[in-house]
Amino acid sequence: MERIQLAEDLSFSRIIHGLWRLADWDFSQEETLQLIEECLERGITTFDHADIYGSYTCEELFGDALALKPELREKMEIVTKCGIKFASANRPSHTSKCYDTSKQHILQSVEQSLKNFQTDYIDVLLIHRPDPFMNPREVAEAFSQLKEEGKMRHFGVSNFKQSQFNMLQSFLDMPLVTNQIELSTYHLENFQDGTVDLCLEKRIAPMAWSPLAGGQVFTSQDEKAIRLREKLASIAKDVNAKEIDEVMYAWLLQHPANIMPIVGSGKLGRIDAAIKAQEIKLTVEQWFDILQTSMGHDVP
Amino acid sequence: MERIQLAEDLSFSRIIHGLWRLADWDFSQEETLQLIEECLERGITTFDHADIYGSYTCEELFGDALALKPELREKMEIVTKCGIKFASANRPSHTSKCYDTSKQHILQSVEQSLKNFQTDYIDVLLIHRPDPFMNPREVAEAFSQLKEEGKMRHFGVSNFKQSQFNMLQSFLDMPLVTNQIELSTYHLENFQDGTVDLCLEKRIAPMAWSPLAGGQVFTSQDEKAIRLREKLASIAKDVNAKEIDEVMYAWLLQHPANIMPIVGSGKLGRIDAAIKAQEIKLTVEQWFDILQTSMGHDVP
Amino acid sequence: MERIQLAEDLSFSRIIHGLWRLADWDFSQEETLQLIEECLERGITTFDHADIYGSYTCEELFGDALALKPELREKMEIVTKCGIKFASANRPSHTSKCYDTSKQHILQSVEQSLKNFQTDYIDVLLIHRPDPFMNPREVAEAFSQLKEEGKMRHFGVSNFKQSQFNMLQSFLDMPLVTNQIELSTYHLENFQDGTVDLCLEKRIAPMAWSPLAGGQVFTSQDEKAIRLREKLASIAKDVNAKEIDEVMYAWLLQHPANIMPIVGSGKLGRIDAAIKAQEIKLTVEQWFDILQTSMGHDVP
């Protein structure tokens, strides 16, 4: 498994496992632990979380499993996020959907995440969404304090556009190490609006959420999904891939921005598809064939 | 009244008074003077003008009033603008609408403004609109000359997008001290397109024009205005505000970008509403409730 | 003929001749040579090419003509481009439309261009289109190698938006000397989306392709073309221009960004129109009249 250097003292596995649907899988602690171990054996050492996943339950489910074998903690990188609040039985104090990137909320959220994971540090904390009400000075203070206290090793963002990234970075005395954004053969926006360009310019590798477009390409009857599905199937044949998800991952992996796809499946077969995708070599013609099929027209 | 530091030797009152409709109020010189004094007593020391307001008449109306008590000049900051030309009986040489940011026009416009105000310096001169035909070298020359001659203390822009701001700034040997932009609960564009982000990144406080959306929220029958009006009324109740304009000002004042709303009313009641708004504390939930009502959908 | 300094050791003629339709003109070698000499006599020393023009034939047609008088080579600047591949009888290895900015393709493309032109150096090489699959490290390596080998004197881009320009530039140890973009009275996008702003900020002069909007303004029946045609005709009268193309060129030439229009005609009359346009002085009102006619509404 290739590794991507995010900072001098931090690298991620090229393929990342994402736990946002962990609560839906109805895994026992042992089954979750088994999934973690299967990932680690495959070289997938980076696990992506957020406070809110599973309506604020996934971090704890993961932590409970990890508690069965605490020695695994130092063999992995835990990423989690904060900054979104929504009404949930698990957060009675939340009355409505909003973002909160105040110093107080960031610190509280992190304390809870540490408890949930039963760990004393998180590898990378991401601000989950660009907050139009963000006070970057408060974010900077929270980050500095968390770093000093050893509770967080590094910081990043998620879903940030160029101006938001540059603005927040200008207040920090540490580099943001990643931007977790939606990237897939189906969802091209971040390739087109300069977000990926900025990652390259700033020399940060983006994490890709929904690298399979949330399954849309497999099942949706919209025109774009249908033509993309057919094209991917045809190219899968050409490159001897079993399934089109391998081609979808390969398309991201071959991009020069060092995109790290987040595989959000609890099934080993689907995880292995992402791993196998690393060996697929698409020609530049195939890469553009997929791009142009997604766009619905040729490049100019 | 809070003050916002724009430069080492320049601060604005947090609430700014805007004179763009002065000519419509049919004030006598004495009434205008009284308005000025009422503002100053309340700590509103910054007055926003433009050469073109009132079809090129407002500066002079203000200057005539000020001439009744010239000692007030040094107790206030005068902001004015240049760069727009339109046909007007008061400018017979103007044949059609255009922008003009040539050195010659800037210098001429400022000379006229100084005469109108019967003062020998302006605190801040703004380029009124980004001029697609702007020669930034000429603007830089005009600014330098005006600064040297002591006619202008500082410079800024209005309605500039990111690329326009960065472009012009790159030609200047002095920092632009503000960007006057449209900002309100109704008009979110500058929050969404990176303009406010750039203000934060560059550490400049924006002035907000039309902070009440030109009255649209009070009277318009468009869907957005209606739902915003209802939401603002409901929150006004919750925070014990008398009128929704207080909530609209509070929403801007609480944003971390140090937004300085320009109150364009000749009525003391409306001016006091902006002042009272400084004491309203919206929760983050209320702030987002207003935002989301304006957008017509939740944040993601 | 005015000259624009692009680098310490490189200047272009303000008017550039573009050869993208050379293959359509059915010129004999002698006729092409004559065109080149007529341009040079008029001070037009810069010739714009691309590998793909004329389905990969124009460079060679030009080179064959130049071979009749090789001493002309050092009196001109040759610009060419690479990075687009499409299926063509002249490139049997190309199976489908795609971009290719790999080191290997850039080097191969340049070798072929040198052969086509029968020269041992190109003045400026442009990446023809922003490549969403671009590996900027490979581009940087190719550029460095070509510069070291003396095959290319300078590098630039074409059709790059802000984020793409900044991204690629951040990987290069030499400045990009131009951005060749679509600019005309009809096509305003690059004036409006920050692309021209960035050229000014970076102090690079853009080359303008389709400065006459590909003839649309002359013949198209779309509303915008019709109203622009009428306005241009009326202004042509006012400034004593024979044809509206002179006004279209003048509109670009007077913009402060040092725009260098590419004249793509094989007819001396049309080339002379661009040259004459240098003497036309539009008033700022006329410039905005054309702008606003193209936009279909006044500036705010």
Describe this structure in words.
The structure is a homotrimer of 300-residue chains. Chain A is an alpha/beta fold and 300 residues long. The first copy, chain A, has 13 helices and twelve strands. Chain A has helices at residues 29-41, 53-56, 58-66, 103-117, 136-148, 162-171, 189-192, 195-201, 216-219, 223-238, 244-253, 268-277, 284-295, and strands at residues 3-7, 10-13, 16-18, 46-48, 77-82, 84-85, 98-99, 122-127, 152-158, 179-182, 207-209, 260-263. In chain A, the strands form three sheets. Chain A has an eight-stranded parallel beta barrel with strand order 3-4-5-8-9-10-11-12, surrounded by four helices. A two-stranded antiparallel ribbon of chain A has the order 1-2. In chain A, strand 8, helix 5 and strand 9 (152-158) form a beta-alpha-beta unit. In chain A, helix 4 (103-117) runs parallel beside helix 5 (136-148), helix 10 (223-238) crosses helix 11 (244-253) and helix 10 packs antiparallel against helix 13 (284-295). The longest helix of chain A is centred in the last third of the chain and has 16 residues, at 223-238. The mean pLDDT of chain A is 97. Chains in contact: A-B, A-C, B-C. The interface between A and B is medium-sized, with 24 and 22 residues.
Largest sheet of chain A: 8 strands, parallel, barrel
Please provide the count of β strands of chain A.
Answer: 12
The end-to-end span of chain A amounts to 36 Å
The coarse silhouette of chain A is globular
Give the strand line-up of the largest sheet of chain A: 3-4-5-8-9-10-11-12
> What's the tally of helices of chain A?
13
Question: In terms of per-residue confidence, which ranges of chain A show pLDDT below 50 for 5 or more consecutive residues?
Answer: none
Mean pLDDT of chain A equals 97
Largest interface: A-B, 24 and 22 residues
Proportion of strand residues of chain A: 15-25%
CA radius of gyration of chain A is: 19 Å
Helix content bin of chain A: 40-55%
InterPro entries (chains A, B, C): AKR_Detox_Biosynth, NAD(P)_OxRdtase_dom_sf, NADP_OxRdtase_dom
Pfam families (chains A, B, C): Aldo_ket_red
EC number (chains A, B, C): 1.-.-.-
Enzyme class (chains A, B, C): oxidoreductase
